[in-house]
Amino acid sequence: MPDIVAVGECMIELFSEDPLGSASTFRRAYAGDTNNVLHMASRLGTSCGYITRVAEDPFGEYLLESWRANGIDTSAVRRVPGFTAVHFISLLAGGEREFIYYRKGSAASGMTPEDLEAGYIGGARALHASSIIQAVSPSCRATTLRAVEIAAGRGALVSFDTNLRLGMWPAREAREALDEVIPHIDVVFTSHPDETSAVLGVDSPGQAVSFFQERGVDTVAVTSGRDGALVAAPDGVLSARAIAPNGVADTTGAGDAFVGGFLHCLVQGMGSEAGLRWGIASAGLKVAGRGGIASQPAREEVEALVDTIEVTRR
Question: Would you call 187 helix, strand, or coil by DSSP?
């Protein structure tokens, strides 16, 4: 049984070095926030499994083969008629990114609570979900709520990322969906200032911590890009600056790498300070290369950095 399971959506990624309107060549990969989290945790040595749907098309087969090759358990993945979602991406001058999504009506968007196996979720040490899968469709939102209810009821750690995508829904709806799952969350990840302001209505990382603690969340991690992260946990309040020892080429998936490193430490019993160190190291190494998964570091690279990260205890 995997230690970490996640419910989410994974899309085929088609990447070009040129602006999408003039691009003639694309490279295939795959991406999705919860998917990226699982890959990072798996690289660090934690067993992981995915709960999602893929289509009975060639891209669906590609995803299944890729997950298995990267140590992600696929026994809870359903194959259904239809199509696998696709998104196109290019990196523009100055580090800006250009996206086009084709996901409405995709295989993953049809997930329902009936797709969930209580034994699979309850047998894991942690369940991870995010606002993005809630936003994909009403049935995905209901599936997410049911998944966290099952995990909490069975004693698994419930992890949630407030990952806001305003192109998918307004901040007001994201807040309503967050309120649905908050009673079941043990660990939450949010980013400042975009998500803390738009979704929570607060102005600082400290206020974000208070927002979640007042609602019963035990561990709150607030990431702030280059400013690093603040973690408030039962064993104290910690902070660390971001690092980029090999430079910055692409920040795509950096937050997911942080979450993967942090959750790896929690399920291995290493604690929140280790989680902060491993999360900062994982994200800092990831940004040196392009893509959410291909540039994720190996465990050995992360281990070589964790003790060099200065953590401040408040």
Answer: strand
Task: Give me the residues paired with residue 213 across strands.
Answer: none
Using only C-alpha atoms, what is the Rg of the chain? 18
With 0-12 / 13-18 / 19 or more C-beta atoms within 10 angstroms meaning exposed / middle / buried, residue 275 is buried
Closest by Cα among 47, 59, 48 to 10: 59
pTM over 0.85: yes
Tokens of 116: 């969930």
Domain with 200, as residue range(s), is: 4-313
Tokens of 118: 């209580």
- Structural domain total, the chain: 1
Q: What is the pLDDT along the chain (314 residues), one digit of tens a residue?
A: 899 999 999 999 999 989 999 999 999 999 999 999 999 999 999 999 999 999 999 999 999 999 999 999 999 999 999 999 999 999 777 667 788 999 999 999 999 999 999 999 999 999 999 999 999 999 999 999 999 999 999 999 999 999 999 999 999 999 999 999 999 999 999 999 999 999 999 999 999 999 999 999 999 999 999 999 999 999 899 999 999 999 998 888 999 999 999 999 999 999 999 999 999 999 999 999 988 899 999 999 999 999 999 999 98
DSSP code of 62? Answer: H
Q: Give exposure, 241-272, as e/b (b: 16+ Cβ within 10 Å).
A: ebbbeeeebbbbbbbbbbbbbbbbbbbbeeeb
Q: In CATH, what number is assigned to the domain containing residue 51?
A: 3.40.1190.20
Question: For residue 193, is the peptide bond before it cis, meaning its omega torsion is within 30 degrees of 0?
Answer: yes
- DSSP β-ladder status, 236-240 and 311-313: antiparallel
Which residues, in sequence order, are bridge partners of residue 189?
A: 161, 221
160 neighbors 187 (Cβ within 8 angstroms): yes
Token pair listed for 191: 């980013």
DSSP states along 42-68? HHTT--EEEE-EEESSHHHHHHHHHHH
